[in-house]
Design brief:
About 35% of the residues lie in helices and about 25% in strands. A 5-stranded parallel beta sheet has the order 6-7-8-3-9. The two termini are about 10 Å apart. Keywords: ATP-binding, Nucleotide-binding.
Length: about 220
């Protein structure tokens, strides 16, 4: 894609990345992601969709090219500054939920608030509202090992939405969910995009891709 500009919330310009030298997973890949829009990343397994999310989310450094946030390059930033931006600006839903098994459901949801110095009471109230919204009908003090896979994924979504992030990245967020809960999650992602966020979803599910504003196939 060409014609990139600073109106994008998030943008990849000629990004190249590989885990093995000489074998890039992504080769000079470019796209822009505007605010108020939900984008589906689709394509066969092994094409680098999850890797792309980690690059866009500043968890990996591109071998070449640039990831821009609000039109500003992120390559020069220190690891500490990148971590701060992840906590302030991003929300993540990982494919395996990635909950901390040693902490309670509630503490998993409010985890990112610690990095932003949010008021604990406000974070807890917001977390409880989200857990109720997504029908996570388990005691907040329960541990992740005591909930189902579908509940764990919804807990991860609550964590991602806690700070109402400007950029939300979701890797197969409906993979462990039944059709009714899938529709609830997709609706929540769409609503978040409509609120002014850039939402990017990796999915193999046609129904989820069709619910997005656009689809980019890798």
């Amino acid at each position: 894609m060409t014609g990139m500009d600073e109106s994008y919330a998030l943008e990849a310009r000629d990004v190249t990345f590989g885990y093995v030298p000489g074998s890039p997973v992504l080769d000079r890949w470019s796209a822009g992601f505007p605010t108020g829009s939900m984008t589906a990343l689709t394509g066969p397994s092994g094409r680098g969709k999850s890797t792309l999310l980690y690059l866009l989310g500043l968890m990996l450094h591109p071998g070449d090219g640039e990831v821009l946030l609000d039109g500003r390059p992120t390559r020069p930033l220190s690891d500490a500054k990148r971590a701060h931006l992840r906590a302030e600006r991003f929300g993540f839903v990982f494919q395996d939920a990635a909950l901390d098994a040693t902490r309670t459901v509630l503490d998993n949801v409010i985890e990112t608030s610690f990095y932003r110095a949010d008021r604990r009471k406000e974070a807890i109230n917001r977390a409880l509202e989200l857990l109720d919204l997504f029908g996570v009908d388990v005691p907040p003090r329960r541990k992740p090992g005591q909930v189902s896979g579908g509940q764990a994924q919804r807990i991860a979504l609550c964590r991602a939405l806690l700070n109402e992030p400007g950029v939300l990245l979701a890797d197969e967020p409906t993979g462990n969910l039944d059709p009714v809960t899938t529709d609830l999650v997709v609706s929540a992602l769409r609503d978040h995009a409509r609120s002014g966020a850039a939402v990017i979803v990796v999915t193999h599910t046609p129904h989820v891709a069709e619910a997005c504003d656009r689809e980019i196939r890798l």
